[in-house]
Amino acid sequence: MRLATFVSTVAAIEMLLTLVVIPAPGTAAEAPPAGIVPTKATLDMVLAGYDRARASKGPASQVEDGRVQMYGMSGTYRDIYSNEDYKESTNLGVVSFADGSSGGQHWYENENGIVILEHDTHEENEIAHAALADHAKDANLGLALAGESESPAAYVIEIRAPGGRHEWQYYDKQTFQLVRSVEIYPARRVVTTFDDYRTTQGFSEPWHVHRTDGFAQDDVDYVTTGLRINAPVASGDLDIPQSNANFVQFPAGTETVDLPAQILHGRVIVHVMINGRGLDFELDSGSSSILIDDQVAKQLGLKLFGQSMETAAGNFEDSEAVVPDLGVGAIHMKNVVVDVASFTSQENSAIKVVGLLGFDFIANALVKIDYKSGTVQAMLPYLFVPPAEAIGVDAFWDDGVPKVTAKVGDVPASFIVDTGADDGVIFGSFARAHPDVVRDQGGGQALLNANPFQHATGVGGQISYVPTQIKRLSVGDATFSDFTMYRVDDPGFEGEDYAGLLGHTFLDNFTLYLDYRDNHIYLMPNSNSHG
Question: What are the percentages of helix, strand and coil residues in the chain, rounded to 5?
Fold first, then answer.
């Protein structure tokens, strides 16, 4: 069954610019699916049926081929499983991508051939699935029998394991095979149906899987066309692929390139060239892709393909296109798969930003942003030696954005280092869990008194926020007292596994080095620093 690929895709699209909100417990977004009625069955009875359906040991390996339709495109897929390792590859003709696990290391390869080694982000699915699979070991922790449904004729188990995804799984009353699942994702719920079960060498699998999140353009449909059980799998078939090392091309013999960039109001604006036309993009570490405005893409003659509904500051339609050559100063990227959506930002009368230069560029060129001098450089990442006096901080790009651990007061939490954000942001989920450490020290109220109607603009709409002066914020050895951040409680901005964003008001105190290759950022304090 194709589970991991869809989870990775959901994570990637939600991170396009910022993140989406997690519904608070008890809200309508977490209400049970319609059609569940009381049942005379018991949880123990249903779990016993679940165990019987899975009594036989799974095959040592299997190779599955099939057809896929997603985002208005058709293609093929191949899944290879061997013991605990797997590789799931999807080819949609214009683009292809893959994900897998090798020796316990989960990975994802995006449309530009950039490989992301995943760490500890987005464990909600694994926790939820483990709660059911290992129910005998944990005394059914987080499991409840929600009832039964008539269509499909199934018993429904609700899973709410601590730290796991809230979901409902439907098990056929006769076979106890999984026939439906409903999962709560940020700002949407994903419904998956499993049917056309077939038995191959004693193992039953669904040959048809359909997923929907309520937006028709996001529907995904998998149809198995071939399944080989205990098929030979070569060791190299499951190796982690090499990342596309030639994606960002430096001039021959050059190690460092000064980018045509300026920093305006905290935004890093970079001049790029596409099809002979100069355009202004924002260098945005908070974007998991390279994005261009849809109207500009049409003016450039780019052919759009695929369509999905994404969420950032609101819902918006997203497509993709291939840019034959994208130049950033002396640096070039060839055949770049970019996201295409409605996006413009007027920085001043002369500069109109029409795109985002995000993860795919940053992952292949170590980026240095000097906020004091207003200059930006790109360096060959494998030659980079961090300055001895810089503050090194572990950073992981599981979602295509740099996640670091910061402390708000004495509470550690994950934040995104976001060069595209004006301010530091505290997400409401963290604030509700830790009200004492985000309590305003007075500065936030003063800002509200001066301007009670505060909001920001993001892809898809506007976000309201409330300023709060944090008593102490620490990232590595950098500590700030009475630091003003903004609390957001708005659908379209929060996200799983994150407490907030560290934007310009934080980054302005440093020269920032983004080192994807070695999973670090480096912060060199400058004279702006007041920590």
Answer: 15, 45, 40
User: What's the distance, CA 421 to chain centroid?
Assistant: 17
- The class of domain 391-525 in CATH terms is mainly beta
Other Cβ atoms closer than 10 A to 317: 15
Taking a C-beta distance cutoff of 8 angstroms, is the pair 473, 406 a contact? yes
Q: What pLDDT shows up at residue 162?
A: 87
CA dist 335 → 23, 95, 276, 363 (Å): 38, 11, 15, 16
d(CA 450, CA 4): 48
Please state whether beta strands 331-341 and 248-249 pair in parallel, antiparallel, or not at all (unpaired). Answer: antiparallel
Q: Which of 336, 324, 320, 323 is nearest to 248 (CA)?
A: 336
CATH: 2.60.40.2970, 2.50.20.10, 1.10.760.10, 1.10.1040.10. Which one for 4-238? 2.50.20.10
Pairing state between β 154-159 and 167-172: antiparallel
As a three-state string, the secondary structure of 247-293 is: CEECCCCCCEEECCEEEECCEEEEEEEECCEEEEEEECCCCCCCEEE
Tens digit of each residue's pLDDT (9 = 90 or more) over 456-465: 555 445 567 8
Are 110 and 360 within 8 A, CB to CB?
Answer: yes
pLDDT tens track for 234-248:
878 999 999 998 999
The tokens for 67 are 């057809």
